[in-house]
Amino acid sequence: MPKPRWWAGVDWSERHGHEVAVVDAAGALVARARIDDTPDGARELLRLLAGLSTSHRHSRKQVPVAIETSRGLLVTALRKAGQPMIPLNTAMVARYRGRMTPTQRRESDAGDALLLANILRTDGELHRSMAQPSPAAEALKVLVLAHWHARRDQRLYDNRLRSALREYYPAAIHAWTTLPNRTLRAEARALLQMAPTPRAAARLRRPQISKTLTAAGRTRQVAEHTDRLHALFRAPALRQPPEVEEAMGERMLAILAQLNEICRVESNLTSRLEEMFAAHPHGEIYASMPGVGPVIGARLLAEIGDDPDRFATAKGLRAYAGAAPLTWASGGSSSVTERTACNRRLKVTGHHWAFATLTRSPGARAYYDRRREAGDRHSAALRRLYGRLLTCLHHCLATGQLYSEQAAFSSRELADPTGTEPPAAVPP
User: Fold this and answer.
1) C-alpha distance from residue 107 to each of 70, 101, 167 (Å)
2) Res 428 pLDDT > 60
3) Which of 59, 312, 389, 422 is deepest in the core (most CB within 10 A)?
4) Where does a domain end: 249, 276, 303?
5) Do the domain assignments include residue 425?
6) CATH number for the domain including 122?
């Protein structure tokens, strides 16, 4: 593709239309427009880019467009038309603003559009073009983001619930302290719904508790948990005055109603997520990786995408995911630190993924143990393991192969969990 002669910047706005600026190789402004977030606005922008030259060799697709978002109707319309788009981070654009206009730090729509165009003109080769995932991958990413938010809201309201219970009903917190998810468990929420105050809980009989636990999904050790809860709720404890206790119970029920609704939404999103992940062409490859279930697989697929040209090498994927170290060097000193400029959701998912492989992959366990013996902390060892797994995943996606433990880790690594043998090479 020939070197661009013009560069465009679009300052996205929610209320006042989008400001467009186009500059030439000398940085001179050659075109300016304000367009709406409508089909006519998108066509106006495409006509403006196509009309920059009357030469038959000119195509609007030779004009890269910078914008501070990767979502929205205008972005979708331009991508559908095949227009090259480069999304720029807002914080990074703010740093450019101080560099290119040192005497003018205030934002303006027209000035920001011109700034975006000039960023591409001067440093365009340093910025990554917008990925081109399939509609299936885009739809999956929308649900994954909604699932992230639902899980976050679950933790928020669970913390509010525990904070409310701590003031008047500590037995309800202690009842599930040793069990996974604690008060977020369905049986915990069902019992709190039936007995919102310590006074009501003390009046519960064993058959009521047993029936509630069974209806909430408990199938094992029902009698043991029934006896434990019955004794705990009847044990002597400090109490609030009856009127205050009733009011606190009403407040707790309001929080519990919100938490129950969020749990229902999260469950529905999880089911839909699993269906879409299983139906995606890359789903089988992701599912073949050790430690990857439907949720982790969907998160990985949504953030990495299915654009085959997005990551030419595994090194680029590792850097994007925060699994590649960052080397700082100045003069005669240098240091290697954790990479923080990366996809944060992908990095968190990778930590969970690497941890899950420790009990599912002998090679991953041996690699982790070897890094620990070399002096790495737990998080650093998991991060290195995550990078190794991403290299394997990149190879599998590039070749269309399923994961193989023997190909990912050598026979020496699989047979030497103590880590005395040197590490084997991963697939290219």
Assistant:
1) 20, 11, 48
2) no
3) 389
4) 276
5) no
6) 3.30.420.140
For residue 371, tell me if it sits in a domain: yes
If one counts every other C-beta atom within 10 angstroms of the C-beta of residue 174, the result is: 14
Shared domain check, 211 and 105: no
**CB-based contact 323:380 (threshold 8 Å):** no
> Are residues 229 and 142 both part of a single domain?
yes
Q: How far is CA 224 from CA 48, 180, 231, in A?
A: 74, 17, 11
pLDDT, one tens digit per residue, over 66-95 is 998 888 889 999 999 999 999 998 888 888
Evaluate whether residue 249 is within a structural domain.
Answer: yes
Final residue belonging to a domain, choices 65, 99, 130: 130
pTM exceeds 0.70 for this model: yes
Q: What angle do CA 17, 23, 24 make, to 5 degrees?
A: 160
Residue length of the chain: 428
Structural domain tally of the chain? 3
Residue 337, sorted as left (phi over 0), alpha (psi -120 to 50) or beta, turns out to be beta
Q: Is 314 found in the same domain as 239?
A: no
Expressed as residue numbers, the domain containing 92 is: 6-130
pLDDT at 391: 95
Residue 299 has pLDDT above 90, yes or no: yes
Record the tokens describing residue 169, joined without a space: 């009903």
* Structure tokens given for 303: 């953030």
**Distance between CA atoms of residues 112 and 99, nearest Å:** 13
- Decide if 420 is inside a domain: no
300 and 338 belong to one structural domain: yes
322 and 264, same structural domain? no
> Which two tokens mark 228?
């434990």
Encode pLDDT of 31-52 as tens digits: 999 998 899 999 999 999 999 9
Q: Which residues pair with 21 in a beta bridge?
A: 9, 32
Clarify whether residues 106 and 235 are in a common domain.
no
Q: Are residues 324 and 353 in the same domain?
A: yes
